[in-house]
Amino acid sequence: xxxxxxxxxxxxxxxxxxxxxxxxxxxxxxxxxxxxxxxxxxxxxxxxxxxxxxxxxxxxxxxxxxxxxxxxxxxxxxxxxxxxxxxxxxxxxxxxxxxxxxxxxxxxxxxxxxxxxxxxxxxxxxxxxxxxxxxxxxxxxxxxxxxxxxxxxxxxxxxxxxxxxxxxxxxxxxxxxxxxxxxxxxxxxxxxxxxxxxxxxxxxxxxxxxxxxxxxxxxxxxxxxxxxxxxxxxxxxxxxxxxxxxxxxxxxxxxxxxxxxxxxxxxxxxxxxxxxxxxxxxxxxxxxxxxxxxxxxxxxxxxxxxxxxxxxxxxxxxxxxxxxxxxxxxxxxxxxxxxxxxxxxxxxxxxxxxxxxxxxxxxxxxxxxxxxxxxxxx
Length: 378
What we know:
With 378 residues, the chain is mainly α. The chain is built from 13 helices and 2 strands; from the N terminus they run αααααααααααααββ. A two-stranded antiparallel ribbon has the order 1-2.
């Protein structure tokens, strides 16, 4: 009787090797990507700190402001009139020194910039010098958190609706290339060159000043309605014009771009072959047009969500919308470095996290993409 020998399953061994290789490749790529994005974020935030301080010019403004405040105190304080000129100058200089020390002006800017960077990267956003929240807090975190909900409400409502409507309109027009509505869209696409606040001014003149059917601005009526239902209706009334302004400034150009994008994919050879097989239009769109464009759609949607954080300073100013955009505009005007840096570092973190996650989402929605290995070629 012949002796039977057992050999290891070569297929199982090959699968284990492939699994180990894939894990090592993904781990290396993930580590390299995290390091790269972190260094990019650090450089971007540090450049923001340098720009926000204007190369030390803001320090000079703060020193001059401190000296002016101290001199104002001296002029109004009767106790200083009894002092000699030498004693008075000594007291003034001491008060100036203490105030400068409290805001960190006793150290060179380059030393303080490194401290600003460390605090910013650890989300220790510090305190504002000239700005405060409605509750009176000077913490940058509280100032930003107080203004974040209005910005998110306005821009999440407008941009998310705008994104999906643009895609749906573009997909519909890509089926009817060259018809009347397609030509109308092409003609209206250049209107996207005007910003939202430009349309906002005309909308206020028409609907608020002439017809008087919608409010001029603000977030709710003053005083706010006590009833929750009336408060919500007032909120919707104040929301209508800014959402319409954002929509008019973007929807035609976005729909035109998506329509062109879908037309390019709909003219591919594999789509023509699918048409020849007799597949329905909806099946063609779902399997052969939307699916290969899904990475681009996801990227655009993800980057749209990031921009919700920043708001639009001029648009919020036109509609007197109490959001982060208007707060950032005030911070720039008042040289409030901590608020500017705080807004930038949050945006930088959100952008880095989104870019990192998109690499893995691409690999999920597109089988051709291999994490850390580019595009799979057959």
